[in-house]
Design a protein that fits this description.
By secondary structure, this protein is an alpha+beta fold. The protein has helices at 13-23, 35-44, 50-63, 67-71, 75-82, 89-103, 113-117, 124-135, 144-153, 163-176, 182-194, 214-218, 278-286, 328-333, 338-349, and strands at residues 234-245, 248-253, 264-265, 268-269, 293-298, 301-311, 323-326. It folds into 2 domains: 9-143 and 173-194, Hypothetical protein, domain 2 (Endonuclease III, domain 1, Orthogonal Bundle), CATH 1.10.340; 234-349, Nucleoside Triphosphate Pyrophosphohydrolase (Alpha-Beta Complex). Helices cover 42% and strands 12% of the residues. Iron/sulfur cluster binds at residues 149, 152-153, 196-197, 202, 204, 207, 209-210, 213, 215-216, 221.
């Protein structure tokens, strides 16, 4: 295992901040120091590219412009505002955190890394990003972008998903983090990693840190960062059941904890990701495979679900298993996980369920 040679990282601070001042992309959360708006953006951007997140952020800030407005919102409205971003536990945690803070009499976020870190759903990166960007606190916000940039600057052979590699990267980050503009520095590293120093391509000729980057010098940029564990995705085939009765459709309710907790959806199964249930078994037995298929993915699973459409002559006892018959307008308004959302669009587009005026 090599140890990176000392390089004058501090000399890169000025060029990096100048580059950030002139070249950064103009996102709405960069036009404000409102801790609430910064927090929302940091949580949204954990799994979403910044350019895609702009519209979601605007929509959210229109719906819930302040911490107090979020704390007073219905969970269903919060999930609807989050629809399309996935990982709905993040939206639920935003709501829980807002209510906790309101209960403590606060109308904004606390200006302390430790207090931010203690909020539901706030990990070390998010706490550091909000603390530095919104409050100017001197804490490094190290995310995947930062790990990649620093592992390239140092031409690090240690895997960054091991604690010793992460420590090396973090200590280089801390050496560089300037006391006067920590938020801008953290944002600049993220911006560099999202633009010039991307995972599969680099624009080293335009990079403000190119003059001190060892990976650039050695031509090894695309071999960094080293990763020790890679999670392989697994493909599964399964079934998704659309039960129709008159103009109504059956939505099952997921359990209050676990994957998509509390969400409604079309019943589906794809063991071992989701076990067979009476609802999917019945669909397998009763309906031919003529409803096409839907593809979606979550965590490590890549799913291909055969859609089976079953028309019932009476509502029967389906709702006993936890669910309800939804009118078209109720179906249109329900926040659904991605796979069910795609099927809903198809049902409306193909006229299988009539679009109500409000849908
Ligand atoms: S010089 Fe290239 S590899 Fe090094 S930090 Fe800049 S973009 Fe990344």
């Amino acid at each position: 295992m090599n140890h990176p040679p000392p390089i004058p990282l501090e000399e890169g601070v000025g060029p990096l901040l100048r580059w950030y001042d002139f070249c950064r992309r103009p996102f709405p959360w960069r036009e404000t120091n409102d801790p609430y708006a910064v927090w929302i953006s940091e949580v949204m951007l954990q799994q979403t590219q910044a350019a895609r997140g702009v519209e979601y952020h605007r929509r959210w800030m229109r719906a819930f412009p302040t911490l107090r407005s979020l704390a007073g919102a219905d969970e269903e409205d919060v999930l609807r505002a989050w629809e399309g971003l996935g990982y709905y536990s993040r939206a639920r945690n935003l709501l829980r955190a807002a209510r906790l803070l309101e209960a403590r009499g606060l109308d904004t976020l606390p200006a302390s890394y430790e207090e931010l870190r203690a909020l539901p759903g706030v990990g070390p990166y998010t706490a550091a990003a909000v603390a530095s960007i919104a409050f100017g606190l001197h804490v490094p916000a190290l995310d995947a972008n930062g790990k990649r940039v620093f592992s390239r600057l140092l031409d690090l052979e240690e895997p960054v998903d091991r604690s010793s590699g992460e420590r090396t990267v973090l200590s280089a980050f801390e050496r560089m983090l300037p006391p006067d503009r920590p938020g801008d520095f953290n944002s600049a590293i993220m911006e560099l990693g999202a633009t010039l120093c991307a995972p599969a391509s680099t624009l080293c000729g335009e990079c403000p840190l190119g003059f001190l980057c060892l990976a650039r010098l050695r031509g090894s940029a695309l071999e960094r960062p080293m990763i020790s564990r890679r999670t392989k995705s697994e493909s599964l085939e399964g079934i998704l059941a659309v039960y129709l009765y008159n103009d109504m459709v059956f939505l099952r309710k997921r359990p209050p904890s676990g994957l998509w907790a509390g969400f409604e959806e079309f019943p589906w199964s794809a063991p071992p990701a989701e076990p067979e249930s009476a609802l999917t078994e019945k669909a397998r037995r009763c309906a031919p495979d003529c409803g096409g298929e839907v593809r979606c993915s979550f965590t490590k699973w890549r799913l291909r679900l055969a859609v089976r459409i079953i028309r019932l002559h009476s509502p029967g006892d389906l709702a006993d298993g936890g669910g309800r018959w939804a009118l078209p307008s109720e179906l249109a308004a329900a926040p659904l996980p991605a796979g069910s959302r795609k099927v809903r669009e198809r049902l409306f587009d193909e006229g299988i369920i009539p679009r109500s005026r409000s849908s």
